[in-house]
């Protein structure tokens, strides 16, 4: 008789894929539990051995591509300059346009092609563009036709500003091939004397424009040629005949800024500018004016030092 209390050993392994559905489900659930229990241990062993491990539901979700559209290329209309940047740009352009070498090329074009002709206008445009492309990269613009268009667009956005208007007019006069002196346009007319830095720079710029014209420069060179050796040794700080020559221009310009068109008005204007001479922009512009009047760099500095004591 068999001992009922003694357990009997199984005669075979369970049939996993038998017909009994409940057996298959139960065994599958057990495997899931075992896998879940083993997963932490497997991960730790994988870290220790460097072997790759995989677990259920650990596959990283694919990242969605960015929905931000690519930035469009910078257009000409995107170029912006603040007023100070625009004034600095105009100042450098005026300095280049008023240089004796540029003015010489300018008037050679007039003699070669004839003032007002299509050939003269085309050559003038090429000369101006070649100068602009050398300057505008210093203001973040490309040294190309696209950069020039960006500059023109940026300046146009500020065209209602009076300081910008004055500089635009000054540049047009510097590029004008008409030799006779013409009175300043009415846009420069002011009721009161200049009382701000930009107004002081305005009155200096209009003088710089006229003093830079080739006919005026020829007169200055003639005065220097006739001067004494002592005058040349002093950097032409004193130059006989210069005050009378400059007065031909100043007698027309100064009344538009509240000063008399006379030698007394010139002295009054100089004293009025004295309090601003310590400003680097004013000092630089004043030096350029005196340079056109024939002074050396040392003489220009000496003149500024005198103005400091007048302030």
Blueprint of the fold:
Elements: H1 21-49, H2 83-98, H3 100-113, H4 118-135, H5 145-156, H6 162-174, H7 197-211, H8 214-226, H9 229-233, H10 242-253, H11 263-273, H12 280-292, H13 297-310
Helix pairs in contact: 2-4, 2-6, 3-4, 6-7, 7-10, 7-12, 12-13
Describe the structure.
It is built from 13 helices and no strands. The protein has 311 residues and is mostly helical. Among the domains are: 77-160, no CATH class; 179-311, no CATH class. The longest helix has 29 residues, at 21-49. The termini are far apart. Mean pLDDT is 77; it is low at 1-42, 45-49, 51-58, 62-75 and 179-190.
Features:
311 residues; mainly alpha
Judged by helices, strands and strand pairing, the structural class is mainly alpha
Total helical elements:
13
Helix content: 55-70%
* Cα radius of gyration in angstroms: 42 Å
Distance linking N and C termini: 135 Å
Quick summary of this structure?
The chain contains 13 helices and no strands. It is mostly helical and 311 residues long.
